[in-house]
Amino acid sequence: MPPLTPPEPEPEFASRPDNRTILTGRLLELSALRYTPAGVPVLGFRIAHSSQQSEADVERAVGCEISAVALGPNAQLMAGAKPGEAVRLTGFLAAKSLKSRSLILHVNEIEFLEGNQNGI
């Protein structure tokens, strides 16, 4: 069986590859800080989001849990966080791996929303 490779972008979208996600929520769980073979810190975590959104001119309650990953300084920053803390995360969505196409949020920016935690 040939190795799995990511799909090529559709030609009509290749000129404008938008993939930016901003999500607020509360930390549910954090994995242990680990390091890649190149020495880059990596931390996986899950957040719970809850909000009111408008869809087809109707307000609806929205709730979800999403897996996320932070690398480098963001991983070290998140390692000091605790479950229950409120955060605003900015990043992009990508497949978890070549074998698992489920989505994971790759975090580029972290904002702690309550107080001055973790030096922010």
From TrEMBL:
Name the residues that span the membrane. none
Pfam families registered for this protein in UniProt: SSB_1 (PF22657)
Any single biological process term in GO? DNA replication, synthesis of primer
Write down the Gene3D superfamilies for this protein, in alphabetical order: Nucleic acid-binding proteins
MF (Gene Ontology) = single-stranded DNA binding
GO cellular component terms, A-Z: primosome complex
Q: Spell out the InterPro entries in the cross-references.
A: NA-bd_OB-fold (IPR012340), Primosome_PriB/ssb (IPR000424), Prisomal_replication_PriB (IPR023646)
Q: Identify the keywords attached in UniProt to this record, alphabetized.
A: DNA replication, DNA-binding, Primosome
Does the record carry DNA-binding as a key word?
yes
Query: Can the keyword Cell cycle be found in this entry's annotation?
Result: no
- What's its job? Involved in the restart of stalled replication forks, which reloads the replicative helicase on sites other than the origin of replication; the PriA-PriB pathway is the major replication restart pathway. During primosome assembly it facilitates complex formation between PriA and DnaT on DNA; stabilizes PriA on DNA. Stimulates the DNA unwinding activity of PriA helicase.
Family to which this protein belongs: Belongs to the PriB family.
On subunit structure and binding partners, the annotation says: Homodimer. Interacts with PriA and DnaT. Component of the replication restart primosome. Primosome assembly occurs via a 'hand-off' mechanism. PriA binds to replication forks, subsequently PriB then DnaT bind; DnaT then displaces ssDNA to generate the helicase loading substrate.
Protein name per Swiss-Prot or TrEMBL: Replication restart protein PriB
The record's gene field reads priB
